[in-house]
Design goal:
This protein has a domain of 207 residues: Aldolase class I (TIM Barrel, Alpha-Beta Barrel). α4 packs parallel to α5, α5 packs across α6 and α6 runs parallel beside α7. β9, α5 and β10 form a beta-alpha-beta unit. The protein has eight helices and 16 strands. The strands form four sheets. It has an eight-stranded parallel β-barrel, surrounded by six helices. The chain is of the alpha/beta class. Bound molecules: succinic acid. The site of succinic acid (SIN) has 14 residues, from loops.
Length: 308
Amino acid sequence: MGMLIINNYNFCAMLALKPGAIEVGGVALDNHLLLAAGILGTTGASLARVLSSGAGGVVTKSIGPAPFPGHPGPCVAVLEDGLLNAMGLPNPSADFAGELDGLAGRPVVVSVFGGSPEEFAEVAAWFADRAAGFELNLSCPHAEGYGAAIGTDPALVEACTRAVASLGLPTWVKLTPNVTDITGCGRAAEKGGASAIVAINTVKAMRISTGLRRPVLGNRFGGLSGPAIFPVAVRCVYELYEACRIPIVGCGGIASADNVLEMMMAGASAVEIGSAVIRGVGVFEAIAADLYADDGVDAATIVGCAHA
Ligand code: SIN
């Protein structure tokens, strides 16, 4: 039997989208491209810089119930096709509120984490007068008692979502791909009152230095991001789109306008860009220049169009 291998499947002229402000999951955005949590998200100045560099919205570094310095280093390794990190959720906790003073009215989504529904609600409440919405980190793959330790249990996903959504602000839930079936957690978030799902956080991974005969990261295990995980992210968004009704924000290895379109065709209404920012904050303007044209199509006509 003959074997067909496709090595170039983008043989049509690339689509362009109509530019302009949008609304996704209750948050008003300047365009479809957001800064993902974890990169350049720890100071008000860096968030403002990303917003003035073409991002349509920003997500802060995840903030938790107590200040924490993070895991021992090395915390980040640059790989051939991505980044491997185990930062360990370093954060200044409630003191972060001051960083948002100059960003009132801007599309700033505050990423929060906790070890229980009560902690999620407590942390989110600190920022309720400064956030355009919340993103719940139920997905960090390497933080004991936090992130995916909670986010792999649909009952806890639902309870944490409900606790934060009760504050009355848009509540996005960032899911982990490190589960057998991501749709169970997506449905749980929806049931808990989420206004959008963010998919995906990093893929649990590790590398070992053959020279040192030791794991590369201080924490041994970390999360893989960047182009290496893009196909995993597309698959997760595609599955979630069939299982849930709330909007999906695609995240995971997006590095080009064509990646953005592919995510939208899988079912994403907007995207978050993280690892590609290693090329500089100019990545937002560069992607936007390829993605938008005044005679472009309405994004609504392509969101989910890859589904039969
Ligand atoms: C970290 O701070 O370790 C990364 C956070 C995450 O993966 O959600």
